[in-house]
Structure prediction request, 120 residues.
Amino acid sequence: QVQVVESGGGLVQAGGSLRLSCTASGLPFPVYRMGWFRQAPGKEREKVSCISRNGLSTYYADSVKGRFTISRDSAKNTLDLQMNSLKPEDTAMYYCAASRDFCSDSPNYWGQGTQVTVSS
Prediction:
C-alpha cells in the first residue's frame, strides 16, 4: 500500500522559514518524480515545485522562485521543501505528490497535506 506523508507545517511569522518533509513508502521512490502543491481556502490548487528522479531538474512557481528550495533523498525516500522569506500569501495546505511524469498536474499519489500558516 502506498503511503505519502507530509510533516513540518506550522505557524510562522512573515519573513520566517519552515522546512516541509515528505516520506513515501510502498512505491519505488527513485522511479517517481516528486512535487509539492498547495491550496488556500477559496483558491485553486497551485503547483509549487517539482523535482526529477535524479534531482537535477526542478521547477518552481514564479510566486516562490528564489525563496523555496526542493530537494530529495532517494536513499531515504524523502522529499523536502525549504521555505524561506515566507509571506502571508504562502498560507495554504501543502501537499506532497508522486508522479510518473515530471511536474504532472495529475500526480499518481498524494499525501494528506500539512498546514502552513504565515502571520503578518
Summary: The longest strand covers residues 18-25. The chain has a mean pLDDT of 97.
